[in-house]
Amino acid sequence: NAYVTKLNQILGDKLEGETIEAIAVKAKEDGDGPLFNQAAQHFNHSFYFAAMKPNAPGSMPAELETALTKDFESVDAFKTAFMDKAVGNFGSGWTWLVYDSADTKLKIVNTGNAGMPEGTQRPVLTMDV
């Protein structure tokens, strides 16, 4: 709520109709640190909490399991790599499972503070660290 409230104060009616991701990207491109921090943290937290569901199924979608096995050798190897990457993320930030369309692979990336996946990376899963 704090990120949304502060973001609305900064934005006013600028960029009305844009997605939160587009606002964060534009703010970063423009070098607007305060706007980027609020917009990116809003995006990151919304993405993070949207992945949590009560009574979620006990198994992951078959397509995801296949992709994780292809790019990490196994789901267990992915889990280990993801946790290792998260533990190694110094300070405040995020660890992401992303799909990188540049090489059509799943990857694990860390971002600091309000950082979010960029360019050809599309978020699949994240952890706030």
UniProtKB/TrEMBL annotation:
Catalytic activity, EC: 1.15.1.1
GO MF: metal ion binding; superoxide dismutase activity
Residue intervals of the Manganese/iron superoxide dismutase C-terminal domain: 62-129
Signal peptide (residue range): none
Highest taxon of source: Eukaryota
InterPro entries: Mn/Fe_SOD_C, Mn/Fe_SOD_N, Mn/Fe_SOD_N_sf, SOD_C_sf
Group of enzyme by EC: oxidoreductase
Described function: Destroys radicals which are normally produced within the cells and which are toxic to biological systems.
Name this protein carries in UniProt: Superoxide dismutase
Organism: Crypthecodinium cohnii
